[in-house]
Structure formats: structure tokens, C-alpha cells
Amino acid sequence: MDYSKVLRNNNKIVSRTGGQGQGVQYTSDLSLRFVLSGNERYDIGRRHLSIYPDSFLILNRGTKYSTETDAGDPVQSFAINFDQQFLQDFKECWTFGDGKLLDQGNESIKAQPEFSETIYPFAGDIRYNVFHLKQHLDDGMQDEMLINEYLHHTLINYFNIYNDEVYKKADKLEFLNQGTKIEIIRRLNLAKEYMYSNYNQNVNLEDLAEHACLSVNHLLRTFKQAFGLTPHQFLIQLRLKRSLLLLKDTRYPVNEVVSMVGFECPSSFIRLFRTHYNITPLKYRQSA
């Protein structure tokens, strides 16, 4: 269902379906971009990011971007744009009230309002909250008080994800300077988003390191420290996770799914899938 809903406090929610792309645009507010089916590519400068149903993208205010979708695979997208005043009120209440989020102190949070524009995992509480909000809006709900409560909880969910994906992972790095840790995490997230967007291609360490502006050895050492996995292990898990989405779609035979997620050998894919999920791909499809 397509709609663009602007609330009285200027928060905006956009639901869109179809295979069309959009030209160059600028974000007016902090924006969370979700893809509920299909995939959508965002071009931000030299970065080309592909968003799938298991991930979402953050765009800060004033970011220049364009989008593109595959005409053969209809996309269902959902975007939440937070008004600056609503966002600032939330941040002051949340961070100053109990100081338990981001663990960075009031001054540094207020001085750095922008968030890392990268791909984040769309799972757990934020997925549950966004799907419930969309269902209510699809059913015609007009209660702005309730809608804003959902938006408030979406921000809580995102701040928790940001804390997990940036600050908690930075704490795992073996550096003394906090600023250095945050910068390394920012670069590692560039490597991670490259894998999110190119997981079905032949990804190599040199490409990852170049994308992250790190040496290969620096990438290997810090990636394992932050994420508990090597880049190769992370890529394999990502491919397996993406195969779950495709196996639910009976249009694709299992052998075709193997190549679609970047595996070359069906037997290797089946073995890894069974090891990781304790079920074969065919039985998973039948149960799903």
C-alpha cells in the first residue's frame, strides 16, 4: 500500500511499492530506510549500497543520494523521517535522563548529532515495532499519539542498535584512544556494508580493505576483534542468511538459490546450511 503521511509534528512516514527508481534527492531530516521485499540500491557519493529485508539504512539530514531498483523484482519500501525537533527532544530526554545509552557523556552526544550512515541489521525489536506500525497504517489508523509512540520506540530500538554496532564493538578494539576506536569502527562498517551490498559477487580482501581505507592485515585484525568473525566467516553467514529469504520464494530451485547468494558449489552450500541451521535447504523450504 502506497502513502505519504506527514504528522502534525512534521514526522513523516512513506510507504512505496513498485520497481521504479528515483533521481538525485536530499534528505531533509534523519531518515530510516527499510525494504520489506525485494532490494533497493542507494548511491551516496561513490558508495553503492543495496538494502534487503534483513537490513536498513540510516541517512542523515542533508545527505545527497539517488535510488534504483530492479524492474523485474517489485520492491516494497518503508521510510521514517524524524523531524529535527522531535529527534533532539528524544536525544535530550534519553541521554540526559539516565545516561545509559551510547556511554559517551552528554557533551559529546550533543556535539555530534549525526549517526554513521551505513547498513544496520533489521531484526529483533526494531523489526517487530516497524512491522506493527506499518500494519496499523495500512489498516488506516489515524491516531497520531499512537503513531508517535511507535516512532519513539523505533528511535529507542535504533539507538540500542547504534550502541551495539558502534560503541560496544569499539570497546573490543585493542586501542587506547576512544576516537581511534570509533574511526576504526566507522571504517570496518564500510567493509561490512560492502559485503551486505555485494554478498553474491566474488568479494576479496583487497576490495574490502580498499573500501574501508585499511590495509589487508589491519582489516583482518580489527574486523575479528570487533565482530568476533573473520571477514570470510561474516560473508558466509550473510550468504546463508540471504538464502533463507530466497528459499521461501518457490520461484527459485535450490540450485539457482546457490548461485544467487554467491556460492559456487551446491554440495558446499548444503553442507554449510545444514551445519548452521541444523536442517537441509529443501526441508527448510518445505517447513517455511
Automatic annotation (TrEMBL):
<dbReference type="GO" id="GO:0043565">
    <property type="term" value="F:sequence-specific DNA binding"/>
</dbReference>
<keyword id="KW-0805">Transcription regulation</keyword>
<feature type="domain" description="HTH araC/xylS-type">
    <location>
        <begin position="189"/>
        <end position="287"/>
    </location>
</feature>
<dbReference type="Pfam" id="PF12833">
    <property type="entry name" value="HTH_18"/>
</dbReference>
<dbReference type="InterPro" id="IPR003313">
    <property type="entry name" value="AraC-bd"/>
</dbReference>
<dbReference type="InterPro" id="IPR018060">
    <property type="entry name" value="HTH_AraC"/>
</dbReference>
<protein>
    <submittedName>
        <fullName>Helix-turn-helix domain-containing protein</fullName>
    </submittedName>
</protein>
<dbReference type="Pfam" id="PF02311">
    <property type="entry name" value="AraC_binding"/>
</dbReference>
<keyword id="KW-0238">DNA-binding</keyword>
<dbReference type="GO" id="GO:0003700">
    <property type="term" value="F:DNA-binding transcription factor activity"/>
</dbReference>
<dbReference type="InterPro" id="IPR009057">
    <property type="entry name" value="Homeodomain-like_sf"/>
</dbReference>
<keyword id="KW-0804">Transcription</keyword>
